[in-house]
Amino acid sequence: AVVSTQSTGSRPVSPTAMLNKVNRKRKIEDTNGYSSSHSANSDNDDPSPIVPIIPAGPPSTGSLSQNQNTYDGLTRIKNVQSIEMGRARMTPWYFSPYPQELCSLPVIYICEFCLKYLKSKNCLKRHKTKCKLFHPPGNEIYRKNNISVFEIDGRKNKNYAQNLCLIAKLFLDHKTLYYDTDPFLFYVMTEYDQQGLHMVGYFSKEKESSEDYNVACILTLPCHQKKGYGRLLIEFSYLLSQVEGKLGSPEKPL
Question: What is the set of active-site residues?
């Protein structure tokens, strides 16, 4: 047997015995270190609660239909009590990132033509004296009886498109709102009366879709549902695809 040149007292020590001794010493030190740290952390009987980190706001780029799991917690919290748009007052279903000072009010007033949001009825009345719109901006590309459809470029009419997305987010839980509306076209369906052309619903699509999607987001306002407008919007999206010579389909999830 190989014997070490070091000794303790008069008896030689083998390398194997020395290695076992070192390992036992390390194991004791590790155990003591764990015990001291564990006892320091166990001074408080109640463990600190785990607080989920929620993003401060939505991302600024991407498709209107993408579902972000990290943003999901925020979209589950309804923050607006009600909105008034024309003659209709609607109760929102989901979160929408309106300014915080408006979310604390019982009602957010919305101009039904330019979709600007205001904090009071008086502000809305003053706004109407200055607002010169009586229909959505953009080009009217369809009309039959009292129904019209306007095509709106998200880049040319950015304020209108962003306000439209804010309204849509109130009633769509699985859509992520983006402020970058430049890559999208919006098709707004309206109903005509003597006061103007009032929005009843819309759908949007990407200007350049790698997978030829013809619908990114679609909504019929709750006050105009069950009138066939949703089916008409879907049929209209497929007609546009036929005109463009594409085999389009809606984004998934729609």
Answer: 251
3-state secondary structure string across 78-106? CCCCCEEECCEEECCCCCCCCCHHHHCCC
For the stretch 192-225, what's the b/e string if a residue is b when 16 or more beta carbons lie within 10 angstroms of its beta carbon?
Answer: eeeeebbbbbbbbbbeebeeebbbbbbbbbeebe
Residues 6+ apart with CB under 8 A from 57: 97
Q: What is the dihedral of CA 94, 99, 100, 104, to 10 degrees?
A: -70
To the nearest 10°, report the CA torsion of 122, 125, 126, 131. Answer: 150
Helical residues (DSSP H) of 155-228, grouped into ranges? 158-169
What is the pLDDT at residue 50?
Answer: 44
CA dihedral 228, 167, 107, 200 (to 10 degrees): -30
Q: What is the C-alpha R_g of the chain?
A: 32
Residues whose CB is less than 8 angstroms from the CB of residue 77 and which lie 6 or more positions away in sequence, other chains included: 95
pTM of the model: 0.69
Cβ–Cβ under 8 Å, residues 186 and 152:
yes
Task: Show the tokens assigned to 62.
Answer: 């991407």
Q: How far apart are CA 185 and CA 188, in angstroms?
A: 10
- For 178-217, how does the pLDDT look when each residue is reduced to its tens digit (9 = 90+)? 678 999 999 999 999 999 999 999 999 988 877 777 788 9
Give every CB contact of residue 25 below 8 A, 6+ residues apart in sequence.
none
Q: How far, in Å, CA of 86 to CA of 109, rounded? A: 9
